[in-house]
Amino acid sequence: MIVPLESQRPDAIERLLDDAFGADRHGRTAYLIRGKAAWIPALSFAVVDDDGALIGSLQSWPVALTQADGSRSPYIMVGPVAVDPSHQGGGHGRAMMDAVVAAARVQGTPPLMMIGDPEYYGRFWGFSANDTNGWRAPGPVEQRRLLALSVDGRAVGGSGMLGPDIRVTA
């Protein structure tokens, strides 16, 4: 069953992410892109089994593409999409992706972006690397794996560096 991720204990989420991606995951480029931004509750989901145990999580993060002139284009970074290794292949990751894309469309969010397999995420949800050739990341990444999806017709693309979109308010 899909539930809001905020209904799950933070330590259970971290344990699931370690099981799915390894404890060394914090140095990966995706972590560098989102920096210290907090994940977005309205666009982050979990899968729980019939006993309420956490078996999947998907987090979404506010990020931005900063152009050479300093202007910033907001994006929502999707991922990691994690499923407990013993439950993989059951459609749980796909169900969470369906949920985040649907929620983003309803909310009219900025375009979604992710680091992922273009064939898989393109086939099911329409993510594409066609307009991300000018994007740079603060760590190593295959350019073809930088994917974007406009959920409301906003333009996707541009050129610049990806990073967290942390807004400071007084």
UniProtKB/TrEMBL annotation:
<dbReference type="InterPro" id="IPR000182">
    <property type="entry name" value="GNAT_dom"/>
</dbReference>
<dbReference type="InterPro" id="IPR016181">
    <property type="entry name" value="Acyl_CoA_acyltransferase"/>
</dbReference>
<feature type="domain" description="N-acetyltransferase">
    <location>
        <begin position="1"/>
        <end position="152"/>
    </location>
</feature>
<dbReference type="Pfam" id="PF13527">
    <property type="entry name" value="Acetyltransf_9"/>
</dbReference>
<dbReference type="GO" id="GO:0016747">
    <property type="term" value="F:acyltransferase activity, transferring groups other than amino-acyl groups"/>
</dbReference>
<protein>
    <submittedName>
        <fullName>Acetyltransferase</fullName>
    </submittedName>
</protein>
